[in-house]
Amino acid sequence: MAYVFTHATVLDGTENMEPRPNMTVVVDDAGRIDKVGPAASTTGPLGAREVDLAGAYLMPGLINAHVHLCGSGKPMSAGGAGDLIDKVVGNPVGMWVLRRMIRGHAQAQLASGVTTVRSVGDPGFADVDVRDAVNAGKCPGPRLLVSGVGVTVPGGHGAGLFAHIAKSPEEAREVVRTCFGRKCDLVKLFITGGVFDAEVEGEPGVLRMSPEVARAAVEEAHKLGMVTAAHIESAEGVRVGLEAGVDTIEHGAELDDGLIALFKRNGAGRSSSLTCTVSPALPFVELDPEKTKSTEVQKVNGRIVYEGIVRAAQQALAAGIPVGLGTDSSCPYITHYDMWREVVYFERLVGASRTLALHTATLGNARILGLGDETGSIEPGKAADLIVCDQNPLDNLEALRSVRMVMARGRLDERPRVKRIPELDAELDGFLPKAV
Ligand SMILES: [Zn+2]
Questions:
Q1: Is 429 domain-assigned?
Q2: Predicted pLDDT at 202
Q3: Based on the domain organization, do 302 and 209 belong to the same domain?
Q4: Distance from the alpha carbon of residue 195 to the mean position of ligand 1, in angstroms
Q5: Residues 337, 111 contacting (CB under 8 angstroms)
Q6: Considering the domain boundaries, does residue 324 fall inside one?
Q7: Max CA separation in the chain (angstroms)
Q8: How many angstroms separate the alpha carbon of residue 116 from the centre of ligand 1?
Q9: 57 and 155 share a domain?
Q10: Which neighbouring-strand residues pair with 118?
């Protein structure tokens, strides 16, 4: 069905966007934006459905560049999660349940205004199946870019959870070929540990994957035409990742001039990018360890990781390195409806302007994910990935907290319903940084 949005105040997602009042946006019946223009001179096709926005803000759907779709965000110890996954993978009923959960979480992202999700590590390739079901029109959902399972090493992050273990460069290539065979969109590497598996204070993000294994995995992925993303929480890990040619560095740590130069050198004329994820680190800093089901050591390490993530994002922005945004949903306290919080953190903790924060969550992320011609802005020819907000996010980004309507590739949800987890919301609101 074709749609005509009238009396829209358009925020188009570009770098210097400003609200353009009284606009008409036409969406054709193939789910693409057909026209964007002033109300007086823009009309839709006969039979199109008119949606009068009465001045509300129409903008591109958000893009969440770092998601795990298997968990809800309710805190669970790492051991508990591992036991659960063991019961599920390799058992048909378990896989059916897992796919259903992943589909539900993807739909929660959508209902919260996220029209594109990059999933970066889930068990059993269940995210691949859900992506295919959405693309085939069998169920509503956001556009999904999926990594399936990731590549890790013995004792590495994600081992036995959402990553396959490679004991050698050749085994790493083998895992990559498996992902390619399962038609994953990208390859996820786990180069360092994380907060949950650091055993000593001051040692989060310890290097686990050897440079040889990282290089083999990236080389094989690039040979097969796949991009790579790597979980990294230390400067040493960033170096290994960049020297291996990783396309997107996830999380990050404080950079130096050498690392900044490496970012810019990578990717055949294109810089590698940094994905900023404040959301998973902040609860460790702000909440009692018992709430995040973590230990005192993990809390100390959580602060180190948090400071590294914020600093790296600031340094990358200053150096002109592309910076994306993602939530790391499924980590403790990271739900599937809180991308808006990451956008707020990017403004209030990293120091981005509101315009830059909104641009990063839309067209900026789209470009980093290779979707710059397909989504992320309101322009004729692009997919109709749109959200409607009652208030102007450029006045206060908290306007993104609840969206009035969501359209994903031309499919309109006029009453998106988010099933919230009130006890998590209350904790998170308790340390929401104040508007600047
Ligand atoms: Zn992650």
A1: no
A2: 72
A3: yes
A4: 11
A5: yes
A6: yes
A7: 67
A8: 16
A9: no
A10: 145
> 375 C-alpha vs ligand 1 centroid, how far in Å?
23
- Dist. CA 426 → ligand 1 center (Å): 23
Residues 302, 414 within the same domain: no
For residue 55 the two structure tokens come to 């001045």
The answer on 390 and 313 residing in a single domain is: no
Model pLDDT, residue 79: 61
Of residues 223, 224, 277, 220, the one with CA closest to residue 248: 277
Distance 408 CA to ligand 1 centre (A): 24
* Cβ proximity of 412 and 3 under 8 Å: yes
Q: Exposed/middle/buried for 337, CB within 10 Å: 0-12, 13-18, 19+?
A: buried
Give per-residue pLDDT as tens, 47-84: 999 999 999 999 999 999 999 999 999 987 656 666 67
Cα–ligand 1 centroid distance for 94 (angstroms): 23
User: pTM, whole model, 2 decimals?
Assistant: 0.96
Ligand 1 centroid from CA 320, angstroms:
24
Q: How far, in Å, from the CA of 68 to the mean position of ligand 1?
A: 6
C-alpha 268 – ligand 1 centre gap (Å): 26
Report how far apart, in Å, the C-alpha atoms of 43 and of each of 7, 34, 384 are.
12, 10, 17
Last residue of a domain, one of 330, 350, 368: 368
Q: How far is the CA of 231 from the centre of ligand 1 (A)?
A: 7
Looking at the domain assignment, is residue 428 inside a domain? no
Residue with tokens 């990294």: 232
More confident residue, 128 or 294: 128
Are residues 355 and 411 both part of a single domain?
no
Q: How far is the CA of 365 from the centre of ligand 1 (A)?
A: 16
Distance 356 CA to ligand 1 centre (A): 23
pLDDT in tens, 122-136: 999 999 999 999 999
Give the count of domains, the chain: 2
Q: How far is the CA of 255 from the centre of ligand 1 (A)?
A: 20
Residue 153's domain is classified under what CATH number? 3.20.20.140
Q: What is the rounded distance in angstroms from the CA atom of residue 93 to the CA atom of residue 273?
A: 39
> In angstroms, what is the span from residue 338 Cα to ligand 1's centroid?
15
Using the mean position of ligand 1's atoms as its centre, give its distance from the Cα of residue 50 in Å.
Answer: 40
Mean pLDDT, the chain, as a whole number? 94
Give the per-residue pLDDT at 82. Answer: 67
One domain for residues 408 and 354? no
